[in-house]
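Problem 3 from the worked examples.
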Amino acid sequence: MSVNPNIAVGGADASVSESSGLEVKRLTFVEAVAMIVGTNIGAGVLSMAYASRLAGYMPLLLWLAVAGVFTTISMLYVSETTLRTRSHHQLSGLAQRYVGSFGAWAIFLSVAVNSIGALTAYMSGSGKILSEFFGISPALGSLLFFLPAAFVLYLGLKAIGKGEKFISIGMVSMTLVLVIATLINERTDFANLFEGSWIYMIPVFNIAVFCFSAQYVVPEMARGFSHAPKRLPVAVITGMVITFILLAIVPMSVIALNGLENQTEVATLAWGQALGQWAFYTANTFALCAMMTSYWGLGGSFLTNIFDKFKSLGSESNPKNRLLVLGIVCVPPFILAYSGMVGFVNALYFAGVFSGVILSIMPILMLRSARKNGDIVPAWQCGWIAHPLIQVLVVILYLCSMAYAIASALGWLPGGW
């Protein structure tokens, strides 16, 4: 491996920030792990049981494991790249340095498309849930969700970390309550977990791939761990393991309780019908928390990517600058959710599939370049998981996901998929 002779060897002392417009605020280990879990666990976890009703639970579990492992590897590539870089950057800034302008714009557009699409869905979903809870209009419900969500984004990385920590702990607690109630329910039958047909496993693969979306927050975590860089990979792996467990036990519980044939599109309905009204409210509160934490993770990443990409905006700590960029991040999704522009929102989702391919390829290219041209020899490196064969498998995984999305859009898939 050829190395830049000017590279420093190091840890925290070598990672003093250059001017990048991004502030350094320390994160605790729990806050960093919660950022991973909170970003990954969106409301989509509640639709997985319905989405796998033909294939069954075991194919879903297999694909969740495969997607989780390869996404974690991709995140660790980003981790090493950030640890090799003296200045603090978001994904777009890292791509600018190590891949060039084309890569930087590709990453930035990927972040923008995925974030706007997801935040729009959270605006719509939160409005519907709060409308059911309080008998208000969905738009007012979305506004009640929007205000605290945007306020925490305005406060910045430390507030996001604390918010993710407390709400993620709440999500895990609610999940455990629902799962335990399911396990002791007389209707629960674990034989349901072995039903289904592996013929229908391919669509489930695509669902599993997009359950993991926390690549965006790794540079945020790296900023928070600039004082203790060795914690970054440990936090990434810990967060992804917890994510996998949550993604696995929610559909497991609902399928064991109701069987494949009785699944509703949203698991909250299935739990409510089987366990009672308390489960309906608990599960919907879980959904709100999941949307909030994912909103913070994706929205916070999008916000800092804008500052990193457009350095002329100045420091993110400037109140006027931050408020302006916050408006760019938060207001369009609220408008799109109630504009009736369904086609545009669907287009954003479809574009997100292509951005997944960008997110698989760019970390590989960035890591290879950082190993040659980085500033620091980091205290932690990827090791065997950076083998070219592993990198090829990561790219193939996301290319197959994109191919499935294209085939689905063009109507080339067999009936029942």
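Problem 4, a separate protein:
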Amino acid sequence: MAKRPGIFPTFFLSGFECSSFNWKEGVRRNLVAETGHDRHAAEDYQHLASLGIAVAREGIPWPMVDKSGCCDFSTLDPYIEAMKATKITPIWDLFHYGYPDDLDPFSDDFVTRFAQYCRAAAEYVTPKLRGPHFFTPINEITFFSFCAGEWGWAAPFRCSRDDRMRLRLALCRAAIAGVKAIREVDPEARMVHIDPLVRVVAPRDRPDQVEAARHETEEDTFLAWDIISGRAHPEFGGSPEILDIVGANNYAFGQMEYREHGPHAALPPGDDRIAPLCEMLDTVWQRYRRPMIIGETSGFGHGRADWLRDVMGESLAAVRRGMDLQGICLFPAVDMPDWHTGEWLHNGICDLVEADGDLRRIPDGAYIDELRRWQKELNRVTALDEDPYSDPVELQDVIDAAYRLNVQPDKNWN
């Protein structure tokens, strides 16, 4: 019996890029197809099981399954069968940047239809897989609001700060309604609300932008979580129980220098304005006091193993400070293309290599070796058995490792 059982069956999680946005020039993208995950679901899940990863973020493509309010979820069956075969638990991602073409995200109908879709999705997937059941109603509300509301990259293709703010409020309303609809089907369902960790600093020669950068770091970054938790706009019906589990995504480009127009500029490695990941996680913890995961993280190319080493050090420093860190999601499990250029990012556990009209999965050996090292350090499994829930994560092992290794926060961690 675990002294401090974790929420998830393994400490290390993973997931698959599943964006389904209506992209620039009105082109509907389907990243599940672009990465071949739709054709390789069984193989992809078997590989995660062999790595001792029992949880995967998996998308349900709302614009593909919902036609004028009528939902057909049969395309999920191959993924569900792969999950059953490998005993892997999904975190169902219900809205990964894409919504049906006939909906206006600023309308009340959008909220109503999203709640109906969430209820229907829960009714379809929960009887087919053992619980507990996990859902992410809307992925990265804050980032998507910039992407589609201010930068015009994706539908609804708006390009103003006001539209970004309006879109974020609409998405928060929908997310809260979606949680309530899911829990009408499964009152015990757990929610993981994903958004990026963000730190914005002013250019060194622009003291006039210090306040704008501070506002984005300390207020804008948290508004979606604040609304879902009921701290802001309580009339929307948020609460700590609806926020449930906080998923904080962490990438190097999340620490940026402020720009008045368009995306900010990522701080280069070694910049003295970079903050330790541990401190950024602590800001989230002090604000919400909810269970947390790192919802996505990855390095790139040959730096993936070093990235994982640094993230683990910072994460254990966070655990040592008392944060309830339940897991780390190595995302994605297989490589993904840059949305703008189409070039492979080489940020997955497996790279993708085109061969004979298909995409072969090529594991990154150094990345996996580093994962194995940390699994042993934390006394975690390195491959899944017949019942991953029979021996739940002992968070005390993670806490003990944090004290034993005594890793200190490091502003040069990335």
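Solution to problem 4. The radius of gyration is 20 Å. The mean pLDDT is 96.
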